[in-house]
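New to this. Look over this protein:
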Amino acid sequence: MKRNRTRRLAGALLALTTASGLLLTGCSGSGTGEGSRADGAERADGFPAPAPPAPDSGEASGEQRQDGTDGEFAPEPDYLSTFALDVDTASYGYARRTLAEGGRPHPSTIRPEEFVNSFRQDYERPDGNGFTVTVDGARTSEADWSLVRVGLATRPAESDGERPPAALTFVLDVSGSMAEPGRLDLAKESLGVMTDRLRDDDSVALVTFSDEAETILPMTRLGGNRGRVHDAVAGLEVQQSTNLGAGVETGYATAVEGLREGATNRVVLVSDALANTGDTDADTILEKIAGARREHGITLFGVGVGSDYGDELMERLADRGDGHTTYVSTSEEAREVFCEELPRHVDLTARDAKAQVAFDPETVDRFRLIGYENRQVADEDFRDDRVDGGEVGPGHTVTALYAVRTRPGADGHLATATVRWLDPGTRAPHEESGQVETADLGESVRSASARFQVAVVAAWFADALRREDTRFAPLPGAPGLDQLARHAEDLADRTEDDAVRQLATTIDRARDIAY
């Protein structure tokens, strides 16, 4: 429906501007994530060309913006790509485990942005809430095709003593499928360690679900009560079916009952997301708790476990629950998530954050956002703060990669990227922008910075894993897995980053499984 509405508006606009002698062409970020072209013609590269977009609001053309800033957002006509920010990493974690066990991840579980965002970047950080915007790029081996990186970064995470207190409601899956090693046992071990790491003024509640849901522990301050929390965790046992809907509903009710003003209130869902009883649809499940989510700002953090994992359901729950997902398969990963990342990132620095990239029609022939298919936002909704975006905390970076074909011999402004977010306390809107020129494009990916190359290698790898999905044309410059593995090994040596070393190992495994 969103795409049809955009096309109808665009058609009316095109007719009007043609009649007045002005040809307005463009491409919309509100489609399916495929490529876009200026003239709307069919392409030879496999990227379908959508209709021209609806115009942006008058705020984009130098008028005073809602946040009090002014200045031109992008020259007109422009080509827009708009999406909600996403810091999920579950797709990469699940693919890594599947390959480690000799399996092939299903293409439907591969989300390139989650591969890219699994790796550290070196963007400049802001001093306060909000984002810095970094835009750069490099040319590929395919004529006129470049890869452009839009990097957004929040302020560094504060020390544990400086963050707000946390009120965390853990919703644990204790269904039969959680008996597999590396599921409930891993969650219990991690929660036990986390209980000792959290502060005395933090609070924890515990809800379990199988056929039905039960509040095992109401919201409880940890100061003087750690033994009580440890006993509740130790007593968890595997039961029967997976009524995930009941678990989420009871978890939110428990979170609302124990709501703490001035604290970060969050539901943490730990599950293999293999729902088989009660409500099994993400939309239906979250409709029941929409009021708590909107009124109290309670966000959802999904932690996926298990070799057989309901990736799609968990991702949709997190997207609709204003949160994000990760995936753990080892004790080391679980300890990092529960004992380091969760306590450090319980705070929020931005609500409903969206990005919009405007490509210059004088220099850009076509473009494609790599991934974010499930996070697309209609271009005209970029400054509509009633439309959900992404919730982002301190210490995070968000990277979006674009495949961009420049016009032959083009020189000058290439693109402007703008991020818009609401202050987590006052909900006042703010924006920050960055831009890139054609002269800023590196001569090759190999000559770009190491962290840029890591992002590109991760995207190329995701692209290779979902190659069987014919909706997506191969990315420009993508090498075979042999060459990609060598590239990743070289980057691991240069960065001395264990995560990049693990990426090289994972690509090696994919190569051995005859992709």
